[in-house]
Amino acid sequence: MTDVKEPPHGKQETKRSTVDFVLVNQKMYSRFIEMEIDEKREKIDISDHNLITVTFKMKKQIEKIDKGKVIEKEYYTKDKLALKIYRKKLEDFWDKNKTNTVPEMMESMVKIARENLLRKYREKETKNEKKSEDKPWMNENIKKEIKKKERNKQSKKKYRK
Questions:
Q1: What's the number of domains the chain is made of?
Q2: CA-CA distance, 137 to 123, in Å (whole number)?
Q3: Which H or E run contains 56?
Q4: Among the four 53, 117, 148, 160, which has the fewest Cβ within 10 Å?
């Protein structure tokens, strides 16, 4: 849509104006409160488009509190600082106790690992919800690498056929 206006100097000036839309389904339309278009670009001015802010009336969802069983789980951390401390304490223990047999070394490794590397966390047991498999040591970088590995497997399968 284009508007043509007469400027004061008598020259014809063409200014483009556009119609801004927000598409919603019937349910969201019933919750619609207002729509604001930032024509003066006061909130954001990094594009040739204007910011559209839409306000909806939303119901607050109340989650049912499941008084399920809490499970305590354990894992060994791989944190670099914790591993450094573990190694130092292990070497000190071996020097102090003159540990020289493999069974003694294994026993001391387990004992010192439990004291220094073992971490515990609690997790609520849920029956009807899908249980999250994320462990405390799982981070975004690890998830990204797992996805990359899965994509590689898929592409290899395609080429084998």
A1: 2
A2: 14
A3: strand 52-56
A4: 160
Considering the domain architecture, whether residues 80 and 39 belong to the same structural domain is answered as no
- Outline where 2-160 has alpha helix (H): 26-31, 80-97, 102-116, 140-160
Task: For residue 74, list its beta bridge partners.
Answer: 120
Number of other residues whose CB lies within 10 A of the CB of residue 159: 6
Q: Is residue 96 part of a domain?
A: yes
Q: Are 126 and 66 in contact (CB under 8 A)?
A: yes
Q: Say if residue 83 is in the same domain as residue 42.
A: no
Please name which of 16, 15, 33, 32 lies closest in space to residue 24, comparing C-alpha atoms: 32
Rounded average pLDDT over 80-85: 93
State pTM to two decimals.
Answer: 0.38
Residues linked to residue 123 through DSSP beta bridges, in sequence order? 71
Helix and strand tally (H, E) in the chain?
4, 6
Domain range for 19 is 2-56
**What are 101's two structure tokens?**
């047999």
| Residues 36/47, Cβ–Cβ less than 8 Å | no
pLDDT above 70 as % of the chain: 75
The number of beta carbons lying within 10 Å of the beta carbon of residue 117 is 16
Q: Do 44 and 38 form a contact (C-beta atoms < 8 A)?
A: yes
